[in-house]
Amino acid sequence: MNKLFIFCLVFLLNFQDQPVKSWKASYKLTWNDFKGKPQLQTGAAAITASGISFGFSITETDSHKVVDFTTEVHAHFYPEQSWYIPEQATNTILGHEQLHFDITELFARKFRQRISKLKISNNIKQELKALHKTINKELAVCQNKYDSETDFSRSFEAQLQWKLYVEAELKALEDFELKE
């Protein structure tokens, strides 16, 4: 049997070889996790750089028939690309940034769920890549919607609604959480 391994990272070129924090239910971000240099011209008080890393391995017969595949999907936080302006740092903003990371985990779970429904075929490599592309687009749309609806954490009511929504969705997909 031949084994083929492919690894894809959401921001491969930008974040390659940089430290990452994997999402864990037992850990909440602190301002100490944000190591990047603040970009004052953006108008933001903080930025969370997070994404989904994805790898897969395909096992083929000598005649190139796919007989098995495995995957790895992780929600990562990138400390060196994440930053905050200390004078503007509040618990509310930190909670907003944590929820960005939680949304990344939510989409990692959705990705794992969708992968679990795939069937082994000779097209699995293309299916996995297409699914990865789709989930990243959906994640980006959700992150932008979250910022827009919460006015970047300034709408306390919307922030609470999003927090409850993401918590409920994470709970609904707890079967697809990586166990610590």
Automatic annotation (TrEMBL):
InterPro entries membership: DUF922
Record-linked Pfam families? DUF922 (PF06037)
Record-given protein name: DUF922 domain-containing protein
- Organism annotation: Neotamlana nanhaiensis
